Amino acid sequence: MWRAFVFPALCHECGFVWGLSYQDAAIHSGNLYRFDGWVRLATSRSGTDPRSGRKGRRKIIWGWCDEAGE
């Protein structure tokens, strides 16, 4: 619903063209984004948590372009 209703309104009001979302690759497959037409832009890994020493998790960065806003 966000992509269909909220994002077009933000694009219109603020002039945005792209929306970004981060997927935790260890928990989710990314199929939701892929099947909805999002574009896989990059991968990222967060740093080590200084409090617990836990390693950061791998993330996939997805983008949605509002072509009507271009």
Could you explain the architecture of this structure?
With 70 residues, this protein is of the alpha+beta class. 26% of the residues lie in helices and 31% in strands. The protein has two helices and three strands; from the N terminus they run αβαββ. Strands 1-3-2 form a three-stranded antiparallel sheet. The longest helix has 13 residues. It is elongated. The two termini are 21 Å apart. The mean pLDDT is 85.
Q: Which SSEs are present, and which pair or pack?
A:
Elements: H1 2-14, E1 18-24, H2 31-35, E2 39-45, E3 58-65
Antiparallel strand pairs: 1-3, 2-3
The largest pleated sheet is described as: 3 strands, antiparallel
What share of the residues does DSSP label as strand, in percent?
A: 25-35%
Q: How helix-rich are the residues, as a percent range? A: 25-40%
How far the N terminus sits from the C terminus, by CA atoms, comes to 21 Å
Structural class: alpha+beta
Give the averaged pLDDT, no decimals.
85
Rg (C-alpha, Å):
15 Å
| Spatial order of strands in the largest sheet | 1-3-2
SSE succession: HEHEE
| Strand tally | 3
Brief overview, please?
This protein is an alpha+beta fold and 70 residues long.
